[in-house]
Amino acid sequence: MSRDRAGFLTLLLPIISLAGVLVIWEILGRLGILDPLFFPVPTRIAAAFLSMLADGEIQANLSITLIRVFAGFLIGTIPGILIGLAMGASEKLRLVLDPVVAAIYPIPKLAIFPLLMIIFGIGESSKIAAIAIGCFFLVLINAMAGVRNISRVYFEVARNYGANSLQVFTRVILPASLPLIFTGIRLALGMSLIVVVGVEFVSANYGIGAMIWNAWETFEIEKLYVGILICAVLGILFTAILRQAEVRLTPWFGHLAFRDQE
């Protein structure tokens, strides 16, 4: 199968499957099989979306959510990558920090959000901190695993050629770890959406999470579905953007993955 044809099918098949689900949903709703009170047909949801778009409600809430997501994502991801690489390269540092990571990582981030509000206040800082913590551990664990999965042979070859510590990091550790780092980044960006919607449920007047919660309180089911749809679309866009970045920054890995599919 040619690469162009494979790419076309990769794009077309999800569109066909999604369109099929929407058509079946519309038909079942029109026939009364699905309760329109809880499962409004897609055309009604689309009408609500266009109305909210015209009123500026979506733009206002989406911009606030995206600011929180990207702020928390950057604050959590950058130190997560650096510390994860350091833990993967240094066994002593890993022995010191690994128990701390193992203890804190499983704690639900929404469970510590009240503590964050006590520390940082009820403003934006506590929301961004919760997102940053959620991103931090996912990226750290994947970056550390990326380093630990590198064959010792590469380090021995680099040392035999006289590479210093900086050269080993830039020529061996970082390139070989990038695929797993990108996996962690994708997981972290998805986690940031989960956490931001959760904290906006609890402590926000604006944002996609707050919009969904207000729709539930006022029983505007179409608006609730619009909020869920926006989260789904954001997840798809984030994943697509990161995959493109991964292909550009790790062309050797993407080429091998494509050959495996063939």
In brief, what are we looking at here?
The protein is mainly α and 262 residues long.
How many strand segments? 0
Number of domains: 1
CATH topology: MetI-like fold
Count of DSSP helices?
A: 11
Mean pLDDT: 85
* Distance between the first and last residues' Cα: 7 Å
Structural class: mainly alpha
Estimate the global geometry from the Cα principal axes: globular
The proportion of residues forming helix, as a percent range, comes to over 70%
CATH superfamily: MetI-like
The stretches of 5 or more residues where confidence is low (pLDDT under 50) are 255-262
Strand content: under 5%
CATH architecture classification: Orthogonal Bundle
The biggest beta sheet is recorded as: none
Cα gyration radius (Å): 22 Å
Order of helices and strands: HHHHHHHHHHH
CATH level 1 class label: Mainly Alpha
Descriptive account of the structure:
- The chain has 262 residues and is mainly alpha-helical.
- It has a single domain, classed as Orthogonal Bundle (MetI-like fold).
- The protein contains 11 helices and no strands.
- It has helices at residues 3-30, 42-55, 57-89, 91-104, 113-120, 124-148, 152-160, 165-202, 208-217, 221-249, 251-261.
- Helix 8 runs parallel beside helix 9.
- The longest helix is centred in the last third of the chain and has 38 residues, at 165-202.
- The protein is globular.
- The chain starts with a helix and ends with a helix.
- Mean pLDDT is 85; it is low at 255-262.
Give the helix/strand layout.
Layout: H1 3-30, H2 42-55, H3 57-89, H4 91-104, H5 113-120, H6 124-148, H7 152-160, H8 165-202, H9 208-217, H10 221-249, H11 251-261
Helix pairs in contact: 2-10, 3-4, 3-6, 3-8, 3-9, 5-6, 6-8, 8-9, 8-10, 9-10, 10-11
